[in-house]
Amino acid sequence: MLDKVERTEAEWRELLSPEQYYVLRGKGTERPFQNEYDELFEPGVYYCAACDLELFESETKFNSGCGWPAFYAAKAEDRVQLTADQSHGMQRVEVTCARCDSHLGHIFNDAPTTPTGQRYCINSVSLKFVPKE
Q1: In the annotation, is 100 catalytic?
Q2: Using the 8-state DSSP alphabet, how is residue 21 labeled?
Q3: Which in 53, 101, 103, 133 has the greatest CB count within 10 A?
Q4: What is the pLDDT along the chain (133 residues), one digit of tens a residue?
């Protein structure tokens, strides 16, 4: 069981950059194809930018062509929460950090060439990459 990270909105605003706050706390989306990790395929681990929870490994990252980092699996099923999202007139599944409830992106079942058939479409600004040494 993960220990929850709970902060006030004022504390989140102080800890996060304006863009991180917009995405992680406001459920926003960064621009496609113009983000830090879409084209990064180095070995390493991706952590939640808000609470440092290990979320994804580079071995599960693939080039989906969507413009955001894409993974076919989370580090462990208890690291992310999946919730129905019907905003913007669409039927989607939101992905949030299980420890701090920050918005990460969405998951889609549209990657038939991956082992899971899934595509975690994640905002770069929601992640912190640590390369393998």
Answers
A1: no
A2: I
A3: 103
A4: 678 999 999 999 999 999 999 999 999 999 999 999 999 999 999 999 999 999 999 999 999 999 999 999 998 878 999 999 888 787 889 999 999 999 999 999 999 999 999 999 999 999 999 999 8
